[in-house]
Amino acid sequence: MLSKKKWIVLICAAALTLSACTACGGSSSSGGGNNTSSTAQASKTPAQISKEVMDSGIEFPEMIQVNADNLKLQYSLEDGDFQEFGVYWSGNAAYADEVCVILAADGKADKVKDAVNQRLETQKTAFKDYVKEEYDRLCTTSVSTKGNYVYWVCTKDNAKANDIITKAIG
Question: Which residue, 168, 26, 44, 169, is CA-closest to 109?
Fold first, then answer.
């Protein structure tokens, strides 16, 4: 039975990877201006960018790669709000570590930024009286945007993580 579960997970991961690859196909859209050109400059997907942060040598607790259902639930997003994403968060409720890179759908960057800001505020509320050190770390982070990219990190080296993301976005 465990072997069957592994196959199902593998098939789901392959389907997600395939859908992420097809979602970044170049479609031309009118309007957007700087958002479209900023989006086109990125040579990596949000999943690749967030993975690069995870593999950068920054110390993390056990982290979980977030799937679309959990992203939509925890960030209050809907299908159509984003094109792609790469999000990891701590698998241990005692830590606030999170790496979030989302490519918003055209015209949805403000909505996605608001949703990510709300996630940050929710985390602050959760940690305020739970783990003071984690709350303090959350208070030193902020949500950033570049074109249609919305990103936020809470790590032990936010400067390094943000540098990786901004270089990858272009």
Answer: 169
CB atoms within 10 A of CB 167: 11
Q: Cβ distance 26 to 40 under 8 Å?
A: yes
Contact 100, 77 (CB under 8 A): no
Q: What is the pLDDT along the chain (170 residues), one digit of tens a residue?
A: 445 544 443 344 433 333 333 333 333 222 333 333 344 456 899 999 999 999 999 999 999 999 999 999 999 999 999 999 999 999 999 999 999 999 999 999 999 999 999 999 999 999 999 999 999 999 999 999 999 999 999 999 999 999 999 999 98
Q: Which helix (H) or strand (E) holds 111?
A: helix 109-128
Compute the distance between CA of residue 91 and CA of residue 24 in angstroms, rounded to an integer.
29
Contacts with 124 (C-beta within 8 Å, 6 or more apart), sequence order: 135, 138, 139
For residue 82, with 0-12 CB atoms within 10 Å meaning exposed, 13-18 middle and 19 or more buried, which class applies?
A: buried
CA distances to 1, 105, 112, 128 from 24, rounded to whole Å, are 35, 11, 18, 38
